[in-house]
């Protein structure tokens, strides 16, 4: 009897937790597991806004996959997924192919630009280590150009979207700007950080007291907010708002939304904004051998509304997915995915944050410290104490 | 009797040495000296190629003017010179005016692009602290973009001109590239540094054995040379050579030549490539009260050929200029400027150099060490032992 082949696409939160759990639970020769990822590293997506702003190093959010994966138990294949050929149980990579018996699609998200013209071409997005390194270097380059040209658009930073990523990013930017000003001889009062949101409020859906606190902290740090303000157009020189106002800004970062990975749609799965409504076991409808988890999976709450794609839900899906894969192989019962919402924490730059844990609302340093604690917990889940010691010290 | 007003325009090598020497020699109330400069700092121009390549910090080549000027003896005025109104003995700044009895024009140079199309718009030049900071940040930004796009033009670096600045710059770039590759996950073998020179050889006029040594050292470090190769056109995406060849390169740095400051020409002085042929006392022809020194002054050697503009000649002119200003004030005899050529040293990156001192030719580490010694000597001339201790440690 052949050993079943499990292929996991993507080493983000969902894929990596699936792999780590399989590695723990599977017995010798029970399955051949291959983890495919574009890079040889995993990154802590929930912290990408820090290297993007330049307040943390690139290395601090990067975890080499071979530091958490035991290569005697799991094959690692560096590669870019181009298409999934479900009819032939095959994954097409840009430089090869892989057969599978069971597939886990954990390919993450892509920016959703809602058809706003020029955004895809001219705005940056916080989506990978390479993309945030580019943002950081771009901002520094623009500051250096300001000293040469004295054109204010080089030191005007527009962040589109005031959800979690947008809010956390402007918090980090506000912390970084005084240092950039010192480094590049730029007058601090000339720099503008403008956070633009189409919805009537920042952090839509969040507790009003926490929203007020976040806006107060960030406004004091120098962030300007424009809510109820859709963006109409993005150009290399800035943006035009729906109300006709033009903002000249050489740096525009879009954090306004994500959609599922386009590979999923291209491979023939039925999607909504690129996401697949999976069954209670996280299996794609119409299949028995394809799990979809993380940002490309659509799961609904009891009121019938989709859960937003977060690291928290992806991690929990990774645990359920690994459990169900083992159940399939062993012929035992799978378990349905039940989301255990533990709360939400957002940082607002150094030493400041807001959050909800259960019914408790947190703000200020407490929230910042809790965020740090959950970061450490994630590192522990991934790689135990050694990884906590290695990476924990970098986290702010 | 009114105290004569001396105004010095520019705090480069010539202007700053003039000011330092006046400060040393002038008695109380013998003259009112004002030094005008665009920035509050002087920079060591002969080392600008290092922060441009990123091998040294911006700070290492920056000397705050108030660390060498005694403000009780010399007024410092931060300002940009727009025009010299010799008829009314007046200097027009962008934000004011200054009257003078004696004027020293030491405004430095501007890049000479020899009419090559697009060079002014799309090529960088190594001319000021702000300009080299921009080069450094640009290169880093381009490396970060390569990791995102895998387009080779982002990691192709073209340096136009293989005179001293060009050669020293490619030497530093070659030292920096391996570090950039590590930082931005770029394969080293993909990076190209191409040095292009219209003349038949690099370092035209230099000793052939030293030229051969320089090319050998730099070629081993990975620099490609194209001599006998004029550039026809520069675009945002690269250059086109006179032979029609196109090189796609997002970074083009022009070091091919300099001309005198355009303010001199605009102010009605007769110039050749922006430089004024001064009399033996460094006075502009037709004037008694205007000295011109440094890159905007044209001085001829015994064979009737102009000396190239260097830090060495500017520094010596500053000494003579200060002497002659004091002679004017005291009614004593001025002395003609005699250039005392002490030799030439060029670095080729870390621990490597070439040079001529008297009839002695130097290469390798000896030349590199001698260059360091002359750097320290300059710091000593400017600010004595304290400045040597403060800045000397930064110099490579």
Predict the CATH topology of the largest domain in chain A.
FAD/NAD(P)-binding domain
Residue-averaged pLDDT of chain A, rounded? 92
Name the poorly predicted regions of chain A: none
Which pair of chains has the greatest number of interface residues, and how are they split between the two chains? A-B, 16 and 16 residues
Largest sheet of chain A, in brief, is: 5 strands, parallel
How many helical stretches of chain A? 9
Distance between the termini of chain A: 50 Å
Q: How is the quaternary structure best described? A: homodimer
Strand fraction of chain A: 15-25%
Rg calc of chain A: 22 Å
**What class, by secondary structure content of chain A?**
alpha/beta
**CATH architectural category of the largest domain in chain A:** 3-Layer(bba) Sandwich
Write the layout of secondary structure elements.
The structure is a homodimer of 396-residue chains.
Chain A: E1 5-9, H1 13-25, E2 32-37, E3 41-43, H2 49-53, E4 62-64, E5 74-78, E6 81-85, E7 90-93, E8 96-99, E9 102-105, E10 109-111, H3 119-122, E11 124-125, H4 129-149, E12 156-160, H5 164-184, E13 192-196, H6 208-220, E14 223-226, E15 231-235, E16 238-241, E17 246-248, E18 251-254, E19 258-260, H7 262-266, E20 276-277, E21 290-292, E22 297-298, H8 311-330, E23 344-347, E24 353-357, E25 360-363, H9 365-392
Parallel strand pairs in A: 1-2, 1-9, 2-5, 9-21, 11-18, 12-13, 12-18, 13-14, 20-22
Antiparallel strand pairs in A: 3-4, 6-7, 7-8, 10-19, 15-16, 16-17, 23-24, 24-25
């Amino acid at each position: 009897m052949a050993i079943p082949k499990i292929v996991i696409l993507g080493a983000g939160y969902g894929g990596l937790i699936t792999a780590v759990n399989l590695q723990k639970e599977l017995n010798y020769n029970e399955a051949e597991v291959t983890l495919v990822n574009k890079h040889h590293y995993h990154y802590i997506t929930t912290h990408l806004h820090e290297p993007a702003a330049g307040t943390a190093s690139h290395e601090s959010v990067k975890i080499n996959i071979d530091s958490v994966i035991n290569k005697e138990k799991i094959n690692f294949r560096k590669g870019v997924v181009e298409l999934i050929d479900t009819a032939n149980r095959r994954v097409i990579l840009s430089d090869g192919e892989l057969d599978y018996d069971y597939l886990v699609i954990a390919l993450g998200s892509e920016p959703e630009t809602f058809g706003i013209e020029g955004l895809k071409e001219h705005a940056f997005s916080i989506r990978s280590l390479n993309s945030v390194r580019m943002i950081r270097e771009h901002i520094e380059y623009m500051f250096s150009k300001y000293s040469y040209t004295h054109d204010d658009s080089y030191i005007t930073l527009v962040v589109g979207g005031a959800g979690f990523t947008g809010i956390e990013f402007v918090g980090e930017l506000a912390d970084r700007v005084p240092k950039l000003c010192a480094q590049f001889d730029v007058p601090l009062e000339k720099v503008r950080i403008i956070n633009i949101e189409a919805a009537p409020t920042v952090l839509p859906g969040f507790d009003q007291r926490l929203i007020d606190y976040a806006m107060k902290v960030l406004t004091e740090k120098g962030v300007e907010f424009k809510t109820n303000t859709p963006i109409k157009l993005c150009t290399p020189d800035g943006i035009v708002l729906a109300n006709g106002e033009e903002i000249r800004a050489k740096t525009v970062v879009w954090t306004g939304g994500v959609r599922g990975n386009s590979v999923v749609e291209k491979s023939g799965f039925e999607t909504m904004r690129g996401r697949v409504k999976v069954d209670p076991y996280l299996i794609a409808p119409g299949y028995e051998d394809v799990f979809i988890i993380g940002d490309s999976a659509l799961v609904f709450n009891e009121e019938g509304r989709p859960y937003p794609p977060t690291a928290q839900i992806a991690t929990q899906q990774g645990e359920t997915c690994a459990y169900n894969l083992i159940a399939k192989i062993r012929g035992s019962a799978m378990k349905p995915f039940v989301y255990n919402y533990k709360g939400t924490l957002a940082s607002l730059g150094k030493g400041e944050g807001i959050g909800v844990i259960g019914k408790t609302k947190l703000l200020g340093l407490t929230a910042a410290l809790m965020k740090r604690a959950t970061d450490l917990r994630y590192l522990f889940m991934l790689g135990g104490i050694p990884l906590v010691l290695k990476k924990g010290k970098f986290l702010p």
